Amino acid sequence: MQSTLCTLSTDAMTYTLPLGGSTLPVTINAIGCIPTQYINITTTFTGTGNSEFLLNSALSTVQLSSSSVDGKIYLIFFHTVNALVAGNSVTVNFVISGPSAVYYSPITPITLTLVDATTFQSYPTATGLSAPTLSANTAYLGLQCSQASLIYWGIGIYPSILNKMSVDFQARIISGGNGLLSNFSEVNDYYNEVYGIRQGSSTQMIWQKLYNLESNSNYIFKYFCVNQLGHISDSQTINFTTLNYGAYLMSV
Fold first, then answer.
1. CATH of 122-241, one of 3.40.640.10, 3.30.830.10, 2.60.40.1120, 2.60.40.2550
2. Which of 37, 135, 220, 249 is paired with 10 by a 20 to 30 Å CA distance?
């Protein structure tokens, strides 16, 4: 660790969530502040109706340790419908504890604001996939959801993920008791399956880069959109063949 205190910052200061729904992941990029041991992050809520908000512990990363792969911390908050209405806000305060906590500055509080849930009651739509842009051992694919959504994607040698559903993707990307993972690679897998998440906070196209693909191989790529009420879109799938360059690797 450096002698100066490490600063962890959220990717925004304000977040919205529908009544009875969840935020998209509140992301902290801690790659430059990996502890020698570990830190724990706990949250408290202040403001009118604060008891109606909770941290989704199953999807949230509440510990950062020396073994953290990419240094990403994901926190997802949800609202339990009661007395609050759209427009109400609460403040989320963060507490850092653990043996490495003394090396970190306090995390700046954030604001959660409730919005009307009507838009999110319809199911999101995932835009159809166009042929990827290929370059050497990489491929670029554009992902797009009709609503703000958490995107789950997967890739593998055809037909590996052909019949896998959103629950199969989520089972790999949600690390038991440790929250979301940026990506997950199957170990010793003939089909070289890799799964990941992207945050679609708007309806704009998101470009996913896939690299170290096998040479001259037929891949299948699939993704789903999950909106802030947990509604899941139909999947979008595409098959493509990589360029012939003679290598044999797969990683994302």
1. 2.60.40.2550
2. 37
